[in-house]
């Protein structure tokens, strides 16, 4: 339900220790994300955007602070979180349909009902004629849409998007960012997206690090 808190980021700090010394990547960051909200984290290169996503996803531990999703503390990767990266990471030897089904296959949930749901997503978002094509037969923007549908296929409660448009040229980036925000809103998904491109920010609530 909209207005209900889904994610709570509480006083997160992260210090990386290397042979050259230490880097304070995040310093006491706190924010909440409500269900159905799409939040963008905007900031220059090196300000800690990827670090905060890795911590929210449970892939990395913070030096201090806590992340809660639905009131539950996140300490390791979790099936309720879907991750979409800069590059689409589609498997070139699998068709579009087989690519979007991969998460369900891994989770042993490739059943008739889920296949129907994924087919509906492909049909609704302009990929109905491309289900049996291979990724290299699609444009960069279409491939990003496929990558998003593959992430949605596992029905995550929260989507984390790490600069999902950065591999695209400027024109496609505007079109695809419009596209993706439309899909997320229509499917009533909650998402946190990081970007260094201020142009993408017009679609989302912005949080500057
Ligand atoms: N594994 C690591 N070991 C040491 N320092 C790191 C490590 N990962 C990131 N850092 C440092 O932490 C800071 C934040 O990095 P991070 O990748 O989170 O930033 P970012 O905002 O995502 O950058 P970009 O937009 O360039 O991807 C940077 O100064 C970076 O050099």
From TrEMBL:
Source superkingdom: Bacteria
Any matching Pfam family: ABC_tran
ABC transporter domain location: 7-208
SUPFAM superfamilies in UniProt: P-loop containing nucleoside triphosphate hydrolases
Keywords: ATP-binding, Nucleotide-binding, Transport
Membrane-spanning residues: none
PROSITE patterns cross-referenced by the UniProt entry: ABC_TRANSPORTER_1, ABC_TRANSPORTER_2
GO MF annotation terms: ATP binding; ATP hydrolysis activity
Annotated protein name in UniProt: NitT/TauT family transport system ATP-binding protein
Organism of provenance: Natronincola peptidivorans
């Amino acid at each position: 339900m909209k207005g209900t808190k889904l994610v709570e980021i509480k006083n997160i700090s992260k210090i990386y220790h290397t042979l050259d010394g230490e880097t304070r990547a995040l310093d006491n960051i706190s924010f909440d994300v409500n269900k159905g909200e799409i939040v963008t984290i905007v900031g220059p290169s090196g300000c800690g955007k990827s670090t905060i996503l890795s911590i929210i996803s449970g892939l990395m531990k913070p030096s201090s602070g806590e992340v809660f999703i639905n009131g539950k503390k996140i300490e390791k990767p979790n099936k309720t979180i879907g991750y979409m990266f800069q590059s689409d990471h589609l498997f070139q030897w699998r068709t579009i349909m087989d690519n979007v089904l991969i998460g369900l296959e891994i989770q042993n949930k490739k059943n008739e009902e889920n296949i129907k749901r994924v087919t509906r997503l492909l049909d609704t978002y302009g990929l109905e004629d491309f289900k049996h094509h291979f990724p290299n037969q699609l444009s960069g923007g279409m491939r990003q849409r496929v990558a998003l549908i593959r992430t949605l296929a596992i029905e995550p409660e929260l989507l984390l998007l790490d600069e999902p448009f950065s591999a695209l040229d400027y024109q496609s980036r505007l079109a695809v960012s419009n596209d993706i925000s439309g899909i997320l809103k229509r499917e009533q998904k909650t998402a946190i997206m990081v970007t260094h491109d201020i142009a993408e920010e017009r679609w989302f609530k912005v949080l500057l690090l």
